[in-house]
Design goal:
The structure is a homotetramer of 373-residue chains.
Chain A lengths: L2 E7 L3 H16 L6 E8 L3 H11 L8 H6 L5 E4 L6 H10 L3 E4 L7 H14 L3 E3 L7 H11 L6 E9 L16 H4 L3 H17 L2 E9 L4 E3 L6 E3 L5 E8 L4 E7 L8 E8 L2 E6 L5 E5 L8 E5 L20 H18 L7 H20 L3 E2 L3
Parallel strand pairs in A: 1-2, 1-3, 3-4, 4-5, 6-11
Antiparallel strand pairs in A: 6-12, 7-10, 7-16, 8-9, 10-11, 12-13, 13-14, 14-15
């Protein structure tokens, strides 16, 4: 295996982000023995696909996503469309023996996610989910510190994802606010990212207990004509129990005026703590003890942190979303080359989806729910 | 009523803080038509009381707290001892017709708190609990903003109280770690402060659902001889439902390495948000909207905020714990003068205690608990 | 010497602050073998003095500051009036053998400051200037760290004092904006504090080079009738050379919209750095090295820092202006008791005044000025 | 003009950054009517150039930079080598009629910079200097706010650029520490960036007064054999006077332990202030007034800020160095297409170089230096 030829399905914001990352890969990973090619792309319409191919640097385009999967010269597909299409596409891609890089949330239900995973396992193809935020170098560094055992037994995780772009009740409805199109609201869209952080940093979640709220129950219709019901959640709060004994809480909302993309966590362990906030993605705050004079050190991410040498000669120059996507693509392509899944793979995604489902049941029933594994 | 003559019961850190505040009151509230006098003090021993009287500026001391209550020239008592003594002292003080300023947590149980409240009501004396942190000018300002309705419907409260002084498992046990002496651990000691914030800012809590954990189950005995069991909680996490429709979460722990006294909250409402952290007690962060370019304004507290003109001519000179205690004493003394309880009074304390109790039941049973009112 | 009997001259904000500190001293320093008494006070009028005596807890008052100095039962005077009166009062106090605690800035000129110092030396009385901000525990800790040599050779000092209370050109003139009454503007009022920080942390300043600007040249008259000229500086910027080889810069202004009391510094040394901001007075930021992964640790001040055990049992409870003034009074009283000046004494004040003067000459001539010593 | 064919001279970190930006341009600016091509590249050796061409996506490579300039199919050259080569290359490129994008600092001297500018003007080619940090969206936004006049008269600029990668005296010497190879030390390397900020935000600098220091006078030789002298500056501090009446100060150093890439400024104007720190490049802090309750708003950069819609659908996703370079390339290419220089062009670079020179003279003579214009 010396090259991975990509077929993209989807040409929106993520189509842009993934293709840029693919094209920049060789510059930052010059010693990487795998050639990445942007072979073809499909989108909502042939015209969109054609424009995207030209714009993003694909060698060709297809009229239909099935045509992408049908091509012999495509080794891997990037599934970059709304999650209600993931199941069908992934099943077809797996059946065709394509490796699969899939945007989050994985699916509309646990059943869908399980079927996708089973299909990929049967086909023995590599899978990976784009919970991209865990690939922020500061988060990778946090995970390394925790995994090293330097901080001892983890006690607590507090995760938040706060935005405010729906706080205005005058904003019209859109597909993200319809259960039939999005599956859920805040839950799948952003809570899933915090759960991914929790699983990445502390491992399996065993039990959950949650609240879900819809703050604005109806909104102007997208076409401006009348009002439509909002049938998904606007905010999620929950408690967690981890298999390793730690406990946790999560708040996720799109109704926190003034908060833009505050995706953050604090982890407290026996011997130290970590704090991260994606809005300041180039920092990790570390406390390495608990003496009376011990505070948190603000560490600016640089060459000595995960993947840092790939990007800059000194600390503080700063990664953005682009570099995170490059790391993601790199890790996926490497998994294709080595034959070993990079994380989070579909199995991880099933676990994430199970937590989301358990949260829904918990919120509906008012009881703790065990997360199967 | 032109004067309030205080009898203190307790001469520790809070004895120092309360007496200093009493003595400084006239300087900052020169127009206040009530004279405050430090009449007498009792402590664990007569010798301690005598030294404290001299040190803190009391006119006399007593050998026993009952003697303080028995004095005719004492109008009000400050109950500044460990909470397992509150019930007995308060009942006696109320029976003697003394007004009562009582440190938190109020009592060892809801029943105790209810009896204390009933006794005070029967005696028609003023009561107030020392949840002092709510009197930080920035918190008072936050409450004013919320109460004004300027931010509309409250959606969410996220409160934390993180410390690390017990994170070291080598720290010996003490009375705060014994259920028979302290009633509970983190729950009464610091969670109660966050609940007070929640009640002060958003009103009644209707339902709770919580987790409690003891991270270090035994510790060196205080006398260094062997090890003793820890039978109170080290960490509390919970979800809240407010009567006004908002939801909330709380984390409180003494096991967050690097955190010293991080007592903070974020409140998100329909039209704005507020953030506070006691470690930066002279700041309030305010977002007054949710436009794409809208962030949080860091407001430095000064003369134009609650009680500010009492303390400084310009913003940013800074209150500390002393000024907070002065505001507390002022408000209590005013309540004695006017005959109207200042908040939080014993009735508020009962509600706080009911939330604590509901949390214990919830943690034990794994179910949502309704808080009676 | 077992007691220090104070006579205050001045009953404004500083009269309030000093007297509260005196009265609280015993509570926080119970083992301190000196009795502090508030014996008498004089103010702008007898009525003001009488009210202040009652309000602040003095045993008596005087009609004239000369009467304070004339009293045999006064050991020390606190000079708390505008700086144009300092010279006359201090000379008289020294002649009467009184110890002298004097607010800043010390004097209207270097000559005045030198005469005051000489008079105090002749009389062999203790002197101290109230550059109170250096007694913030975090600043005391910074100085200890630097003095310990742990950070090696100091390289650079960057100090700022930014406020905005004069930024509005509609604010009427007052005595602080008149050279005949205040001596200078920003220079003596706030630049002097930054210079005190510089001298406290890094020692003698040898050469200065500065800019001074008046941004609003005339303002409404205080009585609202017409406009008056502003003949003092609104902003100062300068460069510094220290005797120890370090260099520095200072910006001080009352025209920084949004800044309230931002008095801060950064010190870079061979082996570490320190950052302080008075608006967050309970924090010191420390870098103890310069590895690629080395950042600043945010240390929350507590019992283990200078004077901390006097105030609280755990970190993060917070000092405010009151505690700083208590430390100041304590150190002055101790100097009276021990016979050894506490710093900054009048000799330090002369050096501060010489820097201010050199800055004025430098700004007027556009050249580096050597600071005599 | 429908395309710009680039020839790169230099294949280091900046070769990587520029080429990635060129290749990503179409994805983010799909409506941009100019085609960018990576035609050829030269580097220190033919082998390096060949590897870089492959790695960065160039159609070809050249053995010598003169061959790049000689090619008819190259419209523009990117000069990405050490600044001592800029003069010769730029003169040749201009003579060949190539448009020129040149890394900073512009040249080894004012004379060189003037000759480069004159050559470009004679040839009527577009020029631009890569003071990339001014193209951070937050800085572009700051400049828009100031230029709009919303804040009124500017009063003060305080700029810093603090790093610590040379703080360790054990680090071996390199070309950046030799005057013959680098021209200067901190001055050209990082002070020049702060000066660019100052000029971008507040316009022409008229007078300067500076200090320069070399903290570590000799270092281990690069080959480890013996020690070599450091004959460039390690730290610069200076005062500035702007043509618009504002004043300023700058500190730039590579000896601030704990600081990594702290490139920041504060600007105070009559009616508002701005604060920026590149380590948190996705934030701008804005004060829009000076009322007692007025603080700074932390604005998270997003789609509504300059170029934001090009990159993300919501705020807070974050630009890094890559996006800044894309904006730079875009603006340069547009200038080639429109025939109008983008700023900072060579004329701006001459002014920057004149300030650097005036600083050197000032530091050597201890006097204010006028900056010619």
């Amino acid at each position: 295996m010396t090259r991975v030829r990509f077929g993209f399905i989807g040409a929106g914001f993520m189509g842009k982000a993934h293709s840029q990352a693919c094209r920049a890969l060789k510059a930052c990973f010059p010693d990487f023995p795998v050639q990445v090619e942007l072979t073809t792309i499909a989108a909502a319409s042939a015209a969109t696909a054609e424009a995207a191919a030209e714009r993003f640097g694909f060698a060709s385009f297809e009229r239909d996503w099935r045509d992408v999967i049908a091509r012999d010269d495509v080794d891997a597909v990037s599934v970059l469309v709304a999650n209600r299409f993931h199941h069908e596409i992934v099943l077809a891609a797996a059946a065709a023996g394509k490796h699969i890089l899939c945007e989050k949330p994985m699916a509309m239900s646990v059943v869908e996610a399980e079927e996708m995973t089973a299909a990929a396992e049967r086909a023995d193809v590599r899978t990976m989910l784009c919970f991209n935020y865990r690939r922020t170098p500061a988060v990778l560094y946090a995970q390394e510190l925790l995994a090293s055992g330097a901080f001892g037994q983890p006690y607590a995780f507090r995760g938040v994802y706060l935005q405010d772009w729906l706080a205005d009740p005058g904003i019209a409805s859109n597909w993200r606010l319809r259960q039939d199109l999005a599956g859920s609201g805040t839950l799948g869209d952003i809570t899933s990212h915090v759960i991914d952080f929790a699983q990445f940093l502390l491992g399996d979640i065993e039990r959950v207990n949650g609240l879900m709220r819809t703050w604005v129950g109806e909104r102007p219709a997208p076409d401006g004509d009348g009002r439509v019901k909002v049938d998904v959640d606007d905010e999620v709060m929950c408690l967690l129990e981890f298999a390793n004994g730690a406990i946790g809480s999560i708040q996720a909302t799109r109704f926190a005026p003034g908060r833009k993309n505050f995706l953050g966590f604090e982890v407290n362990c026996e011997g130290g703590s970590l704090i991260f906030d994606y809005e300041r993605m180039n920092e990790l705050w570390i406390s390495r003890g608990h003496a009376g004079t011990q505070g948190f050190e603000r560490v600016v991410i640089g060459p000595d942190h995960p993947y840092g040498k790939r990007f800059w000669p000194i600390p503080g120059i700063g990664v953005g979303f682009h570099e995170i996507k490059m790391i993601e693509i790199h890790d996926f392509v490497r998994s294709v080359a080595t034959g070993e899944n990079a994380r989070p793979d579909f199995a991880d995604g099933v676990q994430n989806q199970r937590v989301l489902h358990a949260l829904e049941v918990s919120a509906a029933t008012g009881s703790w729910q065990r997360v199967p594994s």
